[in-house]
Amino acid sequence: MGPLLVLWLAVFLSGTWAVDRGNFKTCDQSAFCKRQRALKPGQSPYRALLETLELTNTKLTLQLINDNNKVRLLLELYRLQGNMTRVKINELKPLKPRFEVPDVLINDPPTEPLSLLSQDENGVVLSLGADSQWLIVSAKPFRLDIMEGREVLLSLNSRGLLAFEHLRIRKDTISYKIKNKVYSAWENIKWVFSRLPKSSQVDPEGAEKKEETDAANEPAEGEVCVCVCTAKEDGMWEETFKSHTDNKPNGPSSISLDFSLPGVEHVYGIPEHADSLKLKTTDGGDPYRLFNLDVFQYELFNPMALYGAIPVMLSHSAQRTMGIFWLNAAETWVDISSNTAGKTVFGQMLDYVQGSSETPQTDVRWISESGIIDVFIMLGPTPTDVFSQYASLTGTQAFPPLSALAYHQCRWNYNDQEDVAAVDQGFDEHDIPYDFIWLDIEHTDGKRYFTWDPHKFPQPKDMLQGLVDKRRKMVTIVDPHIKVDSSYKIHNEIRSKGFYVKNKDGGDYEGWCWPGNSGYPDFTNPEMRAWWASMFAYDQYEGSMENMYTWNDMNEPSVFNGPEVTMHKDALHGNWENRDLHNLYGLYVQMATAEGLIERSGGVERPFVLTRAFFAGSQRYGAVWTGDNTAEWEHLKISIPMCLSLGLVGVSFCGADVGGFFKSPSTELLVRWYQTGAYQPFFRAHAHLDTPRREPWLFGPENTALIREAVRQRYALLPYWYQLFYHAHHSGQPVMRPLWVEYPQDTATFSMDDQFLLGEDLLVHPVTEEGGRGVTAYLPGKGEATALFCVLQVWFDVHTFQKHNGAQNLYIPVTISSIPVFQRGGSIIPRKARVRRSSSCMEHDPYTLFVALSPKRFAQGELYIDDGHTFNFDKQKQFIHRRLSFANKALSSRNLAPGSQFITPSWIEKIVILGASKPSKATLKTPDGKENLLEFEFDASMSVLTLRKPGVNAGVDWTVVLQ
Amino acid sequence: MDFNLAGVHWLSDLLLCTQPLPVPTIPTERQFYEENKPFTCLDGSSTIPFDRVNDDYCDCRDGSDEPGTAACPNGSFHCTNAGFRPTFIPSSRINDGICDCCDTTDEYNSGATCQNTCREMGRKERESLQIMAEITKEGFLLKQQLIHEAKRGQEDKQGKLTELQGSKKGLEEKVEALRTVKETAEDPEKEAKERHLKAWEEQKELIRMEKDKTRMAEAFLELDDDADGYVSVAELQSHLELDPDSDGSLSETETQGLLGGADKVDTSTFETVWSGIKDKYLSEVSQGQSEPPAPVETPQEEESRDFVSDHDSDHYPEDYAGEEDVEDDEEDDHEEEEEEEEKVPPTVQTPEKREDDEVSMPPYDTETQSLIDAAQKARDDFDEAERALREVDDQMKNLEKEIGFDFGPSAEFAYLYSQCYELSTSEYIYRLCPFNRVSQKPKFGGSETNLGLWGQWAGPEDNLYSVMKYDHGQGCWQGPNRSTTVKLTCGKETVVTSTSEPSRCEYLMEFTTPAVCQEPASLDEVLHGHTEL
Question: What pTM value is reported for the model?
Answer without folding.
Answer: 0.81
